[in-house]
From TrEMBL:
<protein>
    <recommendedName>
        <fullName>Adenine phosphoribosyltransferase</fullName>
        <ecNumber>2.4.2.7</ecNumber>
    </recommendedName>
</protein>
<dbReference type="InterPro" id="IPR000836">
    <property type="entry name" value="PRTase_dom"/>
</dbReference>
<dbReference type="InterPro" id="IPR050054">
    <property type="entry name" value="UPRTase/APRTase"/>
</dbReference>
<dbReference type="Pfam" id="PF00156">
    <property type="entry name" value="Pribosyltran"/>
</dbReference>
<keyword id="KW-0808">Transferase</keyword>
<keyword id="KW-0328">Glycosyltransferase</keyword>
<keyword id="KW-0660">Purine salvage</keyword>
<dbReference type="InterPro" id="IPR005764">
    <property type="entry name" value="Ade_phspho_trans"/>
</dbReference>
<keyword id="KW-0963">Cytoplasm</keyword>
<comment type="function">
    <text>Catalyzes a salvage reaction resulting in the formation of AMP, that is energically less costly than de novo synthesis.</text>
</comment>
<dbReference type="GO" id="GO:0003999">
    <property type="term" value="F:adenine phosphoribosyltransferase activity"/>
</dbReference>
<comment type="pathway">
    <text>Purine metabolism; AMP biosynthesis via salvage pathway; AMP from adenine: step 1/1.</text>
</comment>
<dbReference type="InterPro" id="IPR029057">
    <property type="entry name" value="PRTase-like"/>
</dbReference>
<comment type="subunit">
    <text>Homodimer.</text>
</comment>
<comment type="similarity">
    <text>Belongs to the purine/pyrimidine phosphoribosyltransferase family.</text>
</comment>
<feature type="domain" description="Phosphoribosyltransferase">
    <location>
        <begin position="51"/>
        <end position="144"/>
    </location>
</feature>
């Protein structure tokens, strides 16, 4: 299956969540069995040579892709969640959004110091959430080998922001002009 075919499985919803935004909805790709398998295989091809210790997925669709990738690679999976969602003792990081702040958390001690991490999410736009997740992981003593995404919106600069912060980043599909 070609990249163009994969991209064609991603639904575009105009003017969501506000006028002028072209929302790229990966759920339509996830619902296509062959498309999902191809996406995870392509992500696995990138991730396999890195030989990460753990796959860390960012809430929420990063859980889906991260868990599938962890299974493909025979690695463990750790979720990075929004504040207040994990039942045990957590560590977290606050970060700035376009209109306010948010917080990401993970269970304390779940990512061992020295762990080699592959960070996964469905889409990168400005990179704020991925940058915060990478910082949280670094604060635990982990090494973020790469941030890997299904979709990049390159005009919003997220990949460049990650790379400027020392995090290698790659995506399977790019949608220019968004």
């Amino acid at each position: 299956m070609s990249i163009d075919t994969l991209a064609g499985l991603v639904r575009t919803i105009p003017d969501f969540p506000k006028p002028g935004i072209q929302f790229r909805d990966v759920t339509t790709l996830l619902a296509d069995g062959a498309g999902l398998a191809e996406l995870v295989e392509r992500m696995g091809t990138i991730a396999r040579p890195l030989d990460p210790d753990l796959i860390v997925g960012i809430e929420a669709r990063g859980f889906i892709l991260g868990a599938a990738l962890a299974l493909t690679l025979g690695k463990g999976f750790v979720p990075v969640r929004k504040a207040g969602k994990l039942p045990g003792k957590t560590v977290g990081i606050d970060y700035v959004l376009e209109y306010g702040t948010d917080r990401l958390e993970l269970h304390e001690g779940q990512v061992p110091s020295g762990a080699r991490i592959l960070l996964v999410d469905d889409l990168i736009a400005t990179g704020g959430t991925a940058l915060a997740a990478a910082q949280l992981l670094r604060e635990q003593g982990a090494s973020v080998l790469m941030a890997l995404f299904a979709i990049d919106l390159p005009d919003l600069g997220g990949m460049a922001a990650l790379e400027a912060d020392g995090v290698a980043a790659q995506a399977i599909i790019a949608f220019e002009g968004d």
